[in-house]
Design brief:
about 160 residues; mainly alpha; two-stranded antiparallel ribbon
């Protein structure tokens, strides 16, 4: 009991520390002689991670085709899986410890999404988009939960319901 309390305390501190680093639009002023120059270090309008719909990622998924109509039964299964495995770090429609998933297919290919779910270890080491996201989210790694293809596919279907 004492040991599990310590683990929970450490996990809580880790989560608090990860969430406490806000990304701010910071501006530094530099004065040279009588002229003042403004230097912007980050703009909120410019995404730091590029949009790339061609990148398929690294992993077992090389091609996926979605039906025109959402498979609601599969999407419901995906929602449950997401709730049980992913909500510690992700929220559907806002940034948290990891990126939000609403609108994901406007930024990433479905193959990339499934590959990051199934193969985060290799993706974070070799895929340029995954590495950029890792850097943007304070080097907080995505834990490999050994999610099989059918579960990743169900989550991918649920993400489609978040697009509207």
């Amino acid at each position: 009991m004492k040991r599990s309390s310590i683990y929970l305390g450490v996990l809580f501190l880790f989560l608090c520390f990860s969430c406490s680093k806000e990304k701010k639009n910071t501006q530094n002023s530099i004065t040279i002689g009588t002229k003042k120059k403004e230097k912007t270090t980050k703009s909120e309008n410019v995404p730091s991670v590029p949009i790339d719909l061609e990148n398929k990622g690294i992993g077992p998924i090389s091609s996926i085709t979605f039906a025109d109509k959402i498979d609601q039964k599969l999407a419901d299964k995906g929602a449950q899986l997401f709730k049980s495995k992913c909500t510690a770090c992700h929220k559907a429609s806002q940034k948290f410890i990891g990126p939000a998933l609403a609108g994901i297919y406007k930024k990433r290919s479905p193959e990339w999404v499934m590959n990051i779910i199934m193969n985060p270890d290799e993706m974070l080491k070799k895929d340029p988009i995954a590495m950029a996201l890792l850097k943007e989210y304070n080097n907080t790694i995505m834990i490999n939960q050994n999610i099989p293809e059918d579960e990743a596919r169900a989550m991918a279907e649920w993400f489609r319901t978040l697009e509207k």
